[in-house]
UniProtKB/TrEMBL annotation:
Topological type in the membrane: Multi-pass membrane protein
Protein name per the record: MFS transporter
Compartments in which it is found: Cell membrane
Chain ranges of the Major facilitator superfamily (MFS) profile domain: 13-501
Organism from which the protein derives: Polluticaenibacter yanchengensis
First-listed, main subcellular location of the protein, grouped into a coarse class: membrane
Keyword S-adenosyl-L-methionine: no
Annotated TM spans: 12-38, 50-73, 85-106, 112-130, 151-173, 185-204, 240-260, 280-300, 307-324, 405-428, 440-459, 479-497
Database matches in Pfam families: Sugar_tr
UniProt keyword annotations, A-Z: Cell membrane, Membrane, Transmembrane, Transmembrane helix, Transport
Length: 506
């Protein structure tokens, strides 16, 4: 077979695997992308900060169960095959995502709302726990060994691409609908859209063939009867599972979620940049940086996986605080000069049964082009004249400052591409075919699901606590979590990962 024919064949495999994986990431991250608005729909609003933290905790729950999904579906993948296992995970993920978009709000069914969302979120986590290992293994087992980093890095782009598409669908939905319509029901549309994408992906995956290496191992009777026991009961293999987790994937996980999810939450929640501008600037940064997954994946074939991944970790540890300090200073209106003569106030009166609702909007303009919007909603009960006030605050940056933030997010995503681009090939090469799906899935999903998935909630909690206590530079406190975890992983990887570690050649 010619080289061109081989290339066409492997890219068909990559395309078929990537479409489904991308959609599963889209389904998984649409919840995180809408975390701010979901907190107001499924949780009681007497304490908005607690509601937002509860939403992040529900988001994190999907990550916590990912290792269990890795065990369940990894075992199936090593027993019955890669293809049918990740077709099952695709359907499970798509169904759970669609149903999240159908759950009634807290105002309608009370505490059943957060409970149902939590259950569906756990199903999503189980499905994703089985998806990634299957897709990465499937592509790796079709790729030539000397190009494995390059070809598997295409799978690595799907997580970022899924997040990018989720942001784009949200932006399109927001732009198409009025603000009231989006708040009332439009936020559900991105969840519903996933059903169409899952159906298309399922049709594509039906036509895929089983991995040639797995088919060969099965034909030769080399499939183990108990992949879990062989993977984790065998001390020799367990050593590599633990080394992969603590020396690489743990650090990669926190860097992934800091550079993409925490950056988005920080800009919107801590810096108060409005949601549309936040989504757009993060989407632009993701689009610019995504090709570097393939760049660093291909480079790892030439100079090794370890050096690139550890360099990404070290850069993140050293520069996170300066980057986020810069982001905060760019968006801090307390340090900007307000144009007092341009300040405007508008109001709108609304009568609802026995209530009078007054909507106030205060617009402040600043010398650098930033616009701050403060919304106040005053509700007056005409029976006893009781009054409640709700306020909201957001800013819109001028073009120059917006591009500064894009650049600062882009740098973080470059770190993500360095640690994440080579990781699939790194994990695949540590484990033999007959236990590969199980052995590589667990450290990957513990590192990303536990250490990485808890990051938004833990970091937001640390920031909130520091702000309440009046700590200086309170907004940087959330970074201690990824800095410490990535630092530990860097040291372990530097000391214990070497060319002498087991490398499987198929």
């Amino acid at each position: 077979m010619s080289k061109t024919s081989n290339n066409n064949s492997i890219f068909k495999v990559i395309a078929a695997s990537s479409v489904g994986t991308l959609i599963e990431w889209y389904d998984f991250y649409i919840f995180g992308s809408l975390a701010f608005i979901i907190s107001g729909k499924f949780f009681p609003q007497d304490n908005p900060t607690a509601a937002f933290l509860s939403t992040l905790a529900t988001f994190a729950a999907g990550f916590v169960v990912r290792p269990f999904g890795a065990l369940v579906f990894g075992r199936l993948g090593d027993l019955i095959g890669r293809k049918y296992t990740f077709m099952l995970t695709l359907l499970l993920m798509g169904g759970a995502t669609f149903l999240i978009g159908c759950v009634p709000s807290y105002d309608t069914i009370g505490y059943w709302a957060p409970f149902l969302v939590l259950v569906l979120r756990l199903l999503q986590g189980l499905a994703l726990g089985g998806e990634y290992g299957g897709a990465a293994t499937y592509v790796a087992e079709h790729a030539p060994a000397n190009r494995r980093g390059y070809y598997t890095s295409w799978i690595q782009t799907t997580a970022t691409a899924g997040l990018f598409i989720s942001l784009m669908v949200i932006l399109i939905t927001k732009s198409t609908l009025s603000a009231d319509a989006f708040d009332a029901w439009g936020w559900r549309v991105p969840f519903w859209v996933s059903v169409i994408m899952v159906f298309v992906s399922y049709i594509i995956r039906q036509k895929m063939h089983e991995s040639p290496l797995f088919a060969k191992a099965k034909a030769e009777g080399k499939i183990v009867k108990n992949p879990l026991k062989e993977s984790f009961g065998n001390k020799y293999n367990l050593k590599f599972v633990l080394l992969a987790l603590f020396g690489a994937v743990m650090g990669q996980g926190v860097i992934w979620y800091t550079g993409q999810f925490y950056a988005m939450n920080f800009i919107q929640k801590v810096c108060n940049v409005n949601s549309i501008q936040t989504d757009s600037l993060v989407a632009i940064a993701l689009l610019m940086a995504t090709p570097f997954f393939v760049v660093f994946g291909g480079l790892s074939d030439k100079i090794g996986r370890k050096s690139i991944m550890l360099a990404g970790m070290l850069l993140a540890v050293l520069t996170y605080r300066p980057i986020y300090k810069n982001i905060f200073e760019i968006t801090d209106i307390a340090a900007k000069t307000e144009l007092a003569d341009k300040r405007t106030v508008t109001n709108r009166l609304e009568n609802k049964e026995d209530k009078t609702i007054i909507h106030y909007q205060f617009l402040s303009y600043y010398e650098d082009g930033t616009i701050a919007t403060k919304d106040s909603v005053v509700t007056i009960n005409t029976v006893n004249k009781a009054e409640t006030v709700k306020t909201g605050y957001s800013i819109q940056l001028d073009s120059g400052n917006k591009w500064k933030l894009i650049w600062l997010v882009f740098i973080q995503v470059i770190y993500v591409t360095m640690v994440y681009g080579p990781i699939a090939a790194f994990l695949v090469e540590m484990f033999p075919v007959n236990i590969r799906y199980t052995s590589m899935s667990l450290p990957y999903h513990v590192g990303n699901g536990i250490f990485g998935g808890l990051l938004p909630m833990v970091a937001t909690y640390l920031v909130t606590k520091a702000q309440t206590s009046g700590s200086p530079d309170w907004y940087l406190n959330g970074l201690w979590y990824p800095i410490i975890i990535a630092g530990i992983s860097f040291v372990i990887g530097l000391v214990y990962l070497s060319r002498k570690n087991r490398q499987v050649h198929d």
